[in-house]
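Why should sequence recovery work at all? Because a backbone constrains its sequence more than one might expect. Tight turns favour small or flexible residues, buried strands favour hydrophobic ones, and helices have their own preferences. The token representation captures these environments compactly. In the example below, the structure is given first.
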């Protein structure tokens, strides 16, 4: 008796490992776009869920950015229903303005997924990002100079969100769909080089593979995993430092300068970032250079004035304290 195709087995194994901590009766929600990655994830999840006694629902988000998008979403919903998912929810969203089309669409998509996940009270939400997506994220993070948080790529688990296929290559998901004769939808945006990620996928990665040899996606994904481990350790150190350095102040967040200077800059800057966000700085607007300017109030203090941060927040030094607060 022959087993499943190797690609099908690989996706099932990845999903089974990702859901191993769930107890029978729990429900998982799979976000499905209709592409090969999410369809392979859906098929593998349906198989594992049925064998492990897990409920499995699906959500298809219609971004309404292309003509006929609702029809595509309904076709994808039917394919997913045929795999045994119940319920299958099609959620239409409005993509507004913001930092860019990719980010705006992503924000709208996650809001919709969260709404469905809350309504169904699911234990986990599964996303179809693959090893290749991880490699692209690392390259984009390197180019942006965003530090270890960006280079560490996407986490396999973040809250209730899980990415079972981060160790599975995109080519494997396509093979799995072909082996199971599943129709997939090719999103035209995935070929539109107006998007930075598409340019990395279609232009940059092929050149890297050609010039440096095969296996670059695996190497970049492995780098993300190693950096993520280091980042977790530094975040833990920073949490301890924040408790040690925090000073009671009724007006604003205050940190003891001497306690802060006793830690490496990598740890100090994590504390500064966390306190600045708590004070009201929008997370997506806080640049590494601004955090460095605040750190200079500690490490290169020459009586300089306050550092102005996004969101009307400022940081300044006074009486042996680093103070961060929204300007009155």
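From this structural description, the recovered sequence reads:
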């Amino acid at each position: 008796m022959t087993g499943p195709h190797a690609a099908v087995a690989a996706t099932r194994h990845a999903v089974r490992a990702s859901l191993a901590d769930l107890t029978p009766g729990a429900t998982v929600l799979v976000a499905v776009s209709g592409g090969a990655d999410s369809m392979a994830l859906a098929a593998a999840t349906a198989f594992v869920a049925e064998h492990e006694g897990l409920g499995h629902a699906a959500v298809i988000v219609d971004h309404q950015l292309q003509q006929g998008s609702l029809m595509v979403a309904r076709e994808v919903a039917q394919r997913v229903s045929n795999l045994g998912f119940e319920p299958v929810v099609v959620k239409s969203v409005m993509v507004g303005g913001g930092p860019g089309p990719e980010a705006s669409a992503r924000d709208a998509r996650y809001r919709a997924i969260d709404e469905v996940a809350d309504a169904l009270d699911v234990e986990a939400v599964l996303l179809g990002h693959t090893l290749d997506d991880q490699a692209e994220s690392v390259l984009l993070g390197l180019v942006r100079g965003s530090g270890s948080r960006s280079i560490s790529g996407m986490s396999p688990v973040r809250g209730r969100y899980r990415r079972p296929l981060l160790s599975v290559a995109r080519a494997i998901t396509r093979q799995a769909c072909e082996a199971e004769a599943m129709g997939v939808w090719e999103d035209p945006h995935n070929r539109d080089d107006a998007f930075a990620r598409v340019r990395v996928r279609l232009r940059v990665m092929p050149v890297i593979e050609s010039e440096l040899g095969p296996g670059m996606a695996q190497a970049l994904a492995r780098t993300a995993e190693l950096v993520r481990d280091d980042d977790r350790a530094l975040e833990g150190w920073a949490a301890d430092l924040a408790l040690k350095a925090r000073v009671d102040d009724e007006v604003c967040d205050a940190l003891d300068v001497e306690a802060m200077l006793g830690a490496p800059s990598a740890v100090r800057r994590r504390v500064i970032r966390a306190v600045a966000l708590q004070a009201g700085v929008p997370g997506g607007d806080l640049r590494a250079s601004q955090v460095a300017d605040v750190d200079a109030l500690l490490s290169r203090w020459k009586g300089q004035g306050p550092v102005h941060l996004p969101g009307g927040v400022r940081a300044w030094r006074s009486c042996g304290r680093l103070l961060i607060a929204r300007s009155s």
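A few observations help interpret the result. The chain has a mean pLDDT of 92.
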